[in-house]
């Protein structure tokens, strides 16, 4: 089959002779890929391997033992091609998406006769598979991902979606699940207001999920005019912090309930200014949730910003299967409008053009795009 394989930093190759995955386990599901999004994480991997670093070692990925080269892509939708004998919730022809985490319970699929693998890490034992000590994703090292004609994964990760949801929108369910998890973790309730810091793909996805969950008001703070305009078109109240300099946080806080701050905030940028603002712009007993992935560096944190008004600061990592289910329910019920979700798609290209018109385009013109999708059929 055709696909994009990751060999290392700045070394992604279009290959026409990748073996087509086949069912080899009773729990396997093979999808014919329809669309796969390019994520900010993929762009980081293009510059320098992070998740792929384990697959670049002699031991291979910690969950699967897989080694490079591997097919990229973890935001994808497709049509079920083949299922194993144990799979009952899916059949050939169904539309589906893959929840792409790899964690302790997946390791046994790759090391079937190793009894030492029966013990789960503490996070997985507690039901928090998204913080597994060896967490990784298919398309990032656990196994071949969605930037190819076909992909395979265990059925516990494959969710059926109603055919009224277009397959291009289906490829957005993964990034939407990232913010669904953060919003659930924050304890957000319908009728509350919220602040989103940053109007990149994850910030705009947060806006859509907050709207679908009944936010009374969503303010998006973003200095870049193109991204601010994108947020406004999706129904956000927008704020340009660059206009107010050192007074930006105080001015932003006035846009919250009773001009005293927001119930919830979501930092989707990951810089000192947005981290501080996410806490300082809250009302008393508000919750600040960090959704951004940070580089390994410390930032200034004033503990009394949290303590004086009993605020909460929490971090959110990835998603769980229940978040995919939540996003699918919002789409199928109409609470999350399909046309609004479609507005996140700013480009579609074929596999052969994915590096030049996908990866490099996003790296060089990131403010211009929200989500570029790659399809094997284009």
UniProtKB/TrEMBL annotation:
GO cellular component annotations of the record: cytoplasm
Entry-linked InterPro entries: ADH-like_C (IPR013149), ADH-like_N (IPR013154), ADH_Zn_CS (IPR002328), GroES-like_sf (IPR011032), NAD(P)-bd_dom_sf (IPR036291)
Gene Ontology terms: biological process: butanediol biosynthetic process
Domain Alcohol dehydrogenase-like N-terminal: 26-162
Co-factor(s): Zn(2+)
Domain Alcohol dehydrogenase-like C-terminal: 201-332
GO MF terms held by the record: (R,R)-butanediol dehydrogenase activity; zinc ion binding
Keywords: Metal-binding, Oxidoreductase, Zinc
SUPFAM superfamilies reported in the protein's UniProt record: GroES-like, NAD(P)-binding Rossmann-fold domains
Pfam families on file: ADH_N, ADH_zinc_N
Similarity-based family: Belongs to the zinc-containing alcohol dehydrogenase family.
Protein name: Enoyl reductase (ER) domain-containing protein
Organism this protein belongs to: Wickerhamomyces mucosus
